[in-house]
Every structure is written in structure tokens, then in C-alpha cells.
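pipeline stage [seq->struct] | target=5-deoxy-glucuronate isomerase | organism=Neorhizobium galegae bv. orientalis str. HAMBI 540 | residues=304
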Amino acid sequence: MYAANDPRAALNTATARSNPAPAAYKGAEYARFYDAPPQEMTGGNETYYARGQNLVVAHTRGKAGLVLSRTNQVDEYVVLLPNKDTPAEVHWNGRSIAVGGYCIVVVPPGDSEVHLKGDGEVIRLITTRADDLVAKCSNADSYLSPDPNVPPFEPWPDPVGGHKLRHYSLDVPPEPGRFGIIFRCSTIMVNFLPGSGPRDITRMSPHFHDDFEQYSLCVAGSYIHYLRWPWISDLNAWRPDDAELCAAPSVAVIPPPAVHTSRSMDPVKNVLVDIFSPPRADFSAKPGWVLNADEYPAPADTAR
């Protein structure tokens, strides 16, 4: 599936399935936040909501002074500030942190607020246990029936030492053998892939996941997402291939077990963020790949 020099080529792909072999498929979802009206618009602030089986992606183009609140949030969520010079403060439980952008913030359950201190782009990643946000999603109807190939969501263990606001810079130098810039919490894994020009079409990486979704969030440039579903005995369930061009900002929800790969298209800079909910066990099992693994233990049956 991967080129020999791709760090993912060393992943253990022989793990057992956690759900039955597919008897039906769900299609992919493509939310182009630049090509549709926002679900919320107030005072020049625009927020778009789209979802998969387990995760809501809330993308906001905001002005200084905007406050994004969560009340009675049931689990941890992630605030992604993909650009530099996007100052913000995050408040939770009487505590706050100030960040300048190009980072992620893990926010604990309960009441919290994100205050934008300058104009910019902020993305919140929140599980679909947040019923109020699920109802706002542009593609809410797509999940009136759940994806039959995604098992029920189960969070990973709470962080060592209990909940608190945590933030992590995305300014991380590359390291041979490590794939991307990966952080996780109890509910979500974020892999921020360094920017690149157009992809070499002789070095694509088609692969599939047995039983988990991938959310491919484009924050700069554009990508073509290629998907192909395996044939099964019921021809009625066969699906045509996808080749969908998605520019920034957008998210593609890639369902299992579709074979997929993405091709960066912009001649200068393309940035993709791959998101998983709950975190990926195979990435977590690679020593050194998850940069905050010491703070967030994996389940007992998953190597760190």
C-alpha cells in the first residue's frame, strides 16, 4: 500500500477486525466550507458544521472579540488554530491559557470558552456526543442511519493527572521515520501534515482502514481525494469510484473500508490535517509518533 520509504509502510496491518466483514457501504462526505452558506453567521463571523459518524468539524472564520462557548460539554474536544498570528485565549474551570496560533488546544469536559483576540480561522473538533452541534451540521441527514462499518464510539483513558487545558505547538521539526505531527487526547487524534507542493503521481499511497473513519481537513491549497470501495457479493451495494477536488477550507470524511489516497494540487503549498476519533491504535503503537503520549495513555490492550 505504501512506498518503501513511507513511515507508514512499517505499520502492523495484521491486526484482527473489531467488526464483521462489510455487507454494505456508506459513501464519503465532502464539506466544502468555501462553496456553501455558513450554518451560523453573526457580526461577520461565519461558522460551518459538518460531521461523520463520530466527529463534528466546526470551522469558523472569526473576528477579534468572538467568543465560542461550550456548556456542559460531555467530553474532551480539540481547538485547532492552523495559522500563525491567530491569538486566542481558552477558558475552562476558572483557568485560561493564551496562544498565538499554529497550535492545538485540548479542552476538558464542562463549560469552556474560546476568545479570539484577532481575526482568524479556528477549527473545533468535537465528538458527535454533542447533540446540539450534530443538529447544526450541513450533512446531518447523511447519518440518520449510522455507518455499518464503524463500531460504537469508545473514548480512550483520561489524561495522566486529570483534566486541564493543554496546548501543543505545531512548529515541530521533522524526524526520520516519524509520520507527520501527531497529538492525541481521550477522544481525538490529530495528524498535522507539513505543507507540500503538488504530489508526485508516481508515489501515491492507496490504503484502507477496516473499521475507523478518517477526516481529511484541507487548510491550505487543494487536494483530489480518490476513493474506491471493494466489491462484495451483493452487486446492489457496489459503489462507483470517487475523485473529488476539495480546496481549503474543506473536510472529506473517508469511511471504512474504502481504499483511498489524496493528491495535493496547489503548485506552492498544500496542508492537510488527518483526524481520527477515537485515536488510532496503530499510530499510537509506533514509538515516538504521538508527541504527547506520556500525557494520554492508550487502552491497556494497545501498545503505547
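stage status: PASS
auto-comment: Residues 25-293 form a domain with the Jelly Rolls fold (CATH 2.60.120.10). The chain has a mean pLDDT of 94.
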